[in-house]
Write a structure and sequence with these properties.
single chain; mainly alpha
Length: 105
């Protein structure tokens, strides 16, 4: 259950990062509220997961899901550049996540 909560927390990080971009510096109400709500739930789930998962593993997985997810959202929603260097960077992050998971007890 902690892993499922952690994955959901990471996906919510993508939600709040995307909503924050859409909030236009917190000048738009609904994206700002979505940002705050997703942040609260994401942090709560991360905190709950850390009760049983190692700190380094939990934090790396949470930020890794957020980083790769935000990269994908940026490309898919905002038309950001999809360069070979950015793809390699995302693959390296995912590789690090897999290695961290395999190295956990």
């Amino acid at each position: 259950m902690p892993w499922i909560s952690l994955i959901i927390a990471g996906l919510l990080e993508v939600v709040w990062a995307t909503a924050m971009k859409q909030s236009n510096g917190f000048t738009r109400l609904w994206p700002s509220l979505i940002t705050a709500g997703a942040m609260l739930v994401s942090f709560a789930l991360l905190s709950w997961s850390m009760r049983t998962l190692p700190l380094g593993t939990a934090y790396m997985v949470w930020t890794g899901i957020g980083a790769v997810g935000a990269f994908i959202a940026g490309v898919a929603i905002y038309g950001e550049a999809l360069t070979s260097g950015r793809i390699v960077a995302a693959v390296l992050i995912v590789g690090g996540l897999v290695l961290m998971k395999l190295s956990s007890h």
